[in-house]
Amino acid sequence: MVNLAPIVTGLSAGSGAAGNVLTITGQNFSGAAGHLSVFFGSTASSSAMVLSDTGISVMVPNGSGTVDVTVQIGPQRNRRREPDPPLDLRDGMD
What we know:
Elements: E1 7-11, E2 15-17, E3 21-27, E4 36-40, E5 43-44, E6 48-52, E7 55-59, E8 65-73, E9 86-90
Parallel strand pairs: 2-9
Antiparallel strand pairs: 1-3, 3-7, 4-5, 4-8, 6-7, 8-9
């Protein structure tokens, strides 16, 4: 069996303020046919652009604290199958 679910393997930064652009690396990003969702904890990003099968550019949403970043096909939050890298969200008050 071949697993074609999106998998996150890395982030371009370990922290970021809301509105910053982050690059997510991984695999299986291009097969979503426009139905790819990126979550920072339980908050969906409103802006995600697939750059390639192994890269996504995404805007960091509002929030604070350390969260997991997950990528999935479709808008519904699914159970994670792989560990995801955490991101420390900044409140913009650095």
